[in-house]
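Students often ask why we bother encoding 3D structure as a string. The short answer is that it lets us treat folding as translation between two languages. Here is a chain of 400 residues written in the first language.
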Amino acid sequence: MAEFNYIARNTGGQCIEGVLTAGTEREAIAALNAQQLFPVELKAAGKIIQQTGSRKVKAQVMVQFYVQLAALMRSGVPLLRALEVLERQTASPALGETLHDIHDRITEGQSLPEAMARHPKAFDELALSIISAGSEGGFLEESLERVAKFTDQQAEMKGRVMGAMAYPIFLSVFSVVIVTVLVVFFVPKFETLFTRLRERGELPALTDWLLWFSNIVSSYGILVVLVGGGLFFLIRAQIATEAGRWFLDRWRLKLPQIGKIYSNLAVSRFCRVLGTLLSGGVPIVAALKISSSSTGNKVLSQAINNAADNITSGESLASPLMASGHFPPDIVEMIAVAEQSNTLEKVLTDIADALEKQTWRRLDMVVRLVEPVMLLVMASAVLVIVVALLLPMLKSAMAI
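And here it is in the second language, the structure alphabet:
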């Protein structure tokens, strides 16, 4: 017999750590399965035995998998046969390996949620919770379709945000490259022409400053890049700490305009995840614990976890959300009314839809403002360089 340290997920999607005694790894896994725990890691004799898939599967590939698996099962195809068909048909090697392992685990006696839990890079906590509830409640096909819809919506949201920010980021990078090339390679060629004017004290201040700046960048540019890179990694390491993450998340919420967009997207994601979990039959406390991490913000997650604790004590969901001050009052009012009318899951989905539309409009407005501002900044920087180089020539021509 040997002792195994384990990390496992329960049916609510929460991670649990503990120690158990078993003769072999397989017996340890069987003991966890008997307790309705889905093993994530086993540690025996100082060695961690990974129980998870090692390759991430793209969101759109997972959407197609969920839809196809639901369709096959609705058509009366047994689960194992459906997994074999999807494994052969998929064009994703990562998904093929995952389905092969899931098929083998189910053949050994595990349930579908138990086998999926071994691959967190393909199946997140939300998917596992909904599929587990559907498997236990006898509506697995509906659960798979619900997970597919949610995954598709989240992928679309991420794509729209990245698409909206692509052009401003491109303008920023392009502006920096253009100005750097001008300052490092173009401006130094004029320095010899202006040496005599500088000796006579007739060189315009703007031109003198530009030549000085060009010399600094040319001479110490690599050092500046190295120092900047060091500061970047230092800040990144600080942000990775618990205190740094809290500071960053608080700061994000307070940014003008951008903070409101970020907050709305986080709240929208929380509402959609919570509504999807509740529609899938997941208990509200477990659903809140899972959906709290979906916000991607420590401050909002803490407020949601506090709400889950209050619900355990018999209070409503709306009160602690309102007390946190991080959720819009109109959203909290809608949640309060939905709790009283027992339509919380539907209202949460409606809130997510409305918030997303409002956020896209605000984001579109900000992007429309950023684009001309970036163009103006780039044009101004180039204009300053050109004027600084032309001023001595104009001054010499006027003197003649």
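Translate back mentally: The radius of gyration is 29 Å. Keep this in mind for the problem set.
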